[in-house]
Amino acid sequence: MSLIFDLFRHEPYFVTIKAGEYLFREGDPSEEKMYVLVAGRADILVKDRVVEEACCGTIVGEMGIIGPHEPRSASVLAKTDCEFVEIGPKRFNFLVAEAPYFALEVMRVLAERLRRTDQLIA
Q1: Helices and strands (H, E) in the chain, number of each type
Q2: Total domains in the fold of the chain
């Protein structure tokens, strides 16, 4: 299990999404929220193309915290029933201050996704 999953495994509140439903869609407002998948599997899609499969510990919607006034750049579609922990700006700032590896993980995810997008464009 990932360090990110360990931060949230005892979380009392989850956003539950049934298989076949979207957590959010490309173009939706970000609402200044990101999520961590703690149960299930989901696809991350850009222009209806699967670019990544999310599993336990995967961060999704991170750009919603980083660029809160921009629309979502991807969709998240549940492949199985899923549970996500929702992270708003206040909690994000707390996590960055109290668990620095959390901030490093968010940056790592952003860098990996940027590299993958570059490869898709090339």
Answers
A1: 4, 8
A2: 1
